[in-house]
Amino acid sequence: MPLRGKPTTEAEKIVFRHEAELPPMTRSMGTVLINKTGSWRYLRPVYEEKTPPCRDACPAGIDIQGFVDMLARGEPLEAWRLIRESSPLPGVCGRVCPHPCERSCNRGEFDEAISIHALERLAADRALNEGVGEEPRAPKEEERVAIIGSGPAGLSCAHFLGREGYGVTVFEALPRPGGMLRVGIPEYRLPRTVLDKEIADIEALGVSFQTGARIGDIGELADYDAIFVATGAHKSRSLNIPGEDAAGVIPGVEFLKNLNLGGKNQAGERVLVVGGGNTAIDAARSALRLGARTTIVYRRTREEMPAIEEEIEAALAEGVDILYLATPRMALVKDGRVAQVGLIKTELAEPDETGRRRPVEVAGSEFMIEADTVITALGEAPDLSFLPEHAGLSEEPREIDGTPVFGGGDAFTGAGTVVHAIASGRRGARAIISRLAGAGVAHEPPGPVVPFESVNTACFARQPAVRMPEVPVAERVSGFAEVNRGLPLTDGLEEAKRCFSCGVCNLCDNCLIFCPDIAVIRLNDSYEIDYDYCKGCGICAVECPGNVISLVEEER
Amino acid sequence: MSIEIPREEYLFSGHTGCPGCGAVLAMRHVLKGLGDKTVVAIPACCWSIIAGAFPYATLNVPLMHCAFETGAATAAGIKAALEIRGDTETTVLAWAGDGGTFDIGLQALSGAAERNDDIIFICYDNEAYMNTGIQRSSATPWKTWTSTTPANTPKETPKKDIVATMMAHHIPYIATGSVAYPADLIAKVRKAKEIRGTKFIHILIPCPPGWRHPSELTIKIARLAVLSRVFPLYEIEDGNHRVTVEPDDTRVSEYLKLQGRFRHLDETDIEVIQANVDREWSRIECLSA
Questions:
Q1: DSSP three-state, residue B177
Q2: How many CB atoms lie within 10 A of CB A253?
Q3: Domain-located, residue A445
Q4: Looking at the domain assignment, is residue A206 inside a domain?
Q5: Of the candidates A461, A537, A545, which has its C-beta nearest B20's C-beta?
Q6: Domain match, A292 and A337 both
Q7: Of the CATH numbers 3.40.1440.10, 3.30.428.10, 3.40.50.970, 3.40.50.300, which one belongs to the domain with range B22-288?
Q8: I need a labelling partner for A79 at 20 to 30 A (CA). Which of A147, A496, B62, B227 fits?
Q9: Contact flag A5-B25 (C-beta cutoff 8 Å)
Q10: Residues A161, A94 share a domain
């Protein structure tokens, strides 16, 4: 039997030259392949891959649909390799990224978004557990690049330069590489084995790390052919209240760094954390684990809190109190250490330039709260004093003493998430390569993003997302062991199968199955339309689950 | 959704079915279920044309054209002839439209069913005489526009209940099928192939020109018919009912509004149709319990 309606014999017109050639009864002697019904068509279906909304929402542009598809096929290591095309830190991002991809996932409008972060983590954890890493290699290009700062932006830049064979040295002021990933993010969110493994993978690309090497003046790096500055934002904004200089008042970044790097416990018995971002939540959950009664005070409401939603939930579940709509006015100092904090209630007025509603103090609403430790987490600013003209540096390169200097990461973008820093590092690497190689790096413009309305949801059954199991609260607050347990492989593979595969063909065969003209041909990893016969009915375009097929007007 | 559909094709491209024709897809999937040891008898219907004009054929299995009223009788005759030649393996399929089943072909079908002739009779029902210009048949639903029941005087009587008619013949297997659920259809066809006696499968076929809908919506409309319970998918094996695809909470209006043949319906008409569909569904559900 033929696998499709292609002729078993050539489609030839049958001609009877005289009566004697006619069969004794009317019976078929050839096939209808003689009719090239493609001439009926006025709309032409074409396979036209589009951009899935997850990938569009990912600052690092990770091929999310692609790696999820590899997981669905049971190939977690291939998934890990694919992620590393766009991000060197899948194990880190799978744990700490605020995953904007999931908020834009079309499946979220159907039942629940794919647990993309859990799947990213699963792929990275499989590589870690199976001991699969980058093969060691040596630089092949002559040019050498210096990177200042080993946080996610610096690591990402090093990764993408290293892959292209450039010699890279990363300078880190602190004794260990990783930047905020090591000193800012607590271990219960990001075990150090994961970070160490992903740094080792970057090292394998021929990247060398010089730790404890603070660059006082960028002139020290004059020997390098290009410099990437990714020093991050470590300087805490101050409260500007009386008593702020007393013992017991600590910037959040400082508190976390001392804890994460040296195991130093600066939390007293009663900790007040001021702020609503991720640093505030990290500091509060860490203080809680150190045995302190912990309260967060935030001048707006839960709705405006910039911290990751799941982190806020976890903090509350663990017993952190959050006091909304209040702000500190003064710290009452007793015997040289803070003893109480004077607060005032706030209310929300009209939105400010950030779009969030502006808090205003309510006159006469002052109150006091007991606290022997105040951790300030009001946002961080970069320290770029080692640059001669630091005000001028951005992601756009500047020549400093004849060397091209590029900026990236939090210090310049102010975006404040790991994934934005990774993206910035990759942009930096691209800019450096095109500068050093003297050629622009071509990249294709992405296709249009697939909206939910274009997904053929009839192809999918409602099925809730799989969530990572968590260590029970009572158990986890007693230490710094990781809170989220990863997905078991079988659950992850099932979760991956929920993906709509928006805009990307995953060979589901719907186009082939529903073609009335048997004009869709399955090739090894794609389909072809036989335009000799396709009548342009458009069923394939409607029935494609992920909106991969477009109908374009026929020109004749 | 991953559907295990056989890769083999028994139809050739180049047939003269309209763009988006559901009847072609139904035949394509049914033959995938039956395989190449199949003989088809086709009375007058759209498929008389789709099957190819002399001397060209659309099917890669033997096909015999026959008179409008003789689908079941021809199939039964072919089966008898095959048995005389010692071939008990080949399946004989009578493939008729609603005209060749509900109206003109009913007598021969009733006769074959009463004798329990060993054939599969499939009615691909596009709910009117589409091939000759959309004249109403007894399969045309209540209030439907056709060229002989125009919008100002749409059809006044309900669609004939062909499944109940066939049940009254006590045949071993009856099923409904849809082009939107090929795996379900193929499973039913395969089951029918293994049963001796008369098997009847009723497939609802959206028809872009006759139902007045864009060609790309054929499958979507077929699916909505199932989900809204206008055309539930079930089978009756030795009198036992079983629903094979669970419908959801889709309203009949979702199905009706995509088709020009229902454009003239008002709210009250749609409510009546919904009530009829609900009543019929609870009967099927009750029988399946």
A1: strand
A2: 24
A3: no
A4: yes
A5: A537
A6: yes
A7: 3.40.50.970
A8: A147
A9: no
A10: no
Tell me the residue range of the domain where A526 lies. 19-50+505-553
Query: ipTM higher than 0.85?
Result: yes
Question: pLDDT tens across A237-247, in order?
Answer: 888 899 889 99
Q: How many CB atoms lie within 10 A of CB A206?
A: 20
Distance in angstroms between the alpha carbons of the first and the last residue of chain B:
27
* Tens digits of residue pLDDT in B198-208: 999 999 999 99
Residue type, B279: R
| A178 dihedral zone (left: phi>0; alpha: psi -120 to 50; beta) | left
Point out the residues of chain A with pLDDT beneath 70.
1-11, 389-392, 439-444, 556
- Token pair 């009548």: residue: A535
Instruction: Please say whether the beta carbons of A91 and A80 come within 8 A.
Output: no
Total domains in chain A come to 4
- Cα A165 from chain centre: 25
Q: Do A34 and B16 touch (CB under 8 A)?
A: no
Do A270 and A372 have their domain in common? Answer: yes
Length of chain B: 289
Asked if residue B14 lies in contact with residue A37, where contact means CB atoms within 8 angstroms, the answer is yes
Can you give the CATH number for the domain in which A337 is found? Answer: 3.50.50.60
- Yes or no: say if A419 and A60 are a contact pair by the CB < 8 Å rule: yes
Same domain (yes/no): A166, A181: yes
Q: Does B216 touch chain A (CB under 8 A)?
A: yes
Looking at the domain assignment, is residue A498 inside a domain?
A: no
Domain assignment of residue A525, yes or no: yes
Tokens 């097929």: give the residue.
A549
Element (H, E) at A549: strand A549-553
In chain B, where the domains are located: 22-288
| DSSP per residue, A198-237 | HHHHHHTTTEEEETT---S-GGGGTTSSEEEE-----EEP
Return residues 446-505 of A near B (CB < 8 Å): 458-461
Asked if the Cβ–Cβ distance from B20 to A4 is below 8 Å, we say no
Round to whole Å and give the CA distance between A415 and A386.
22
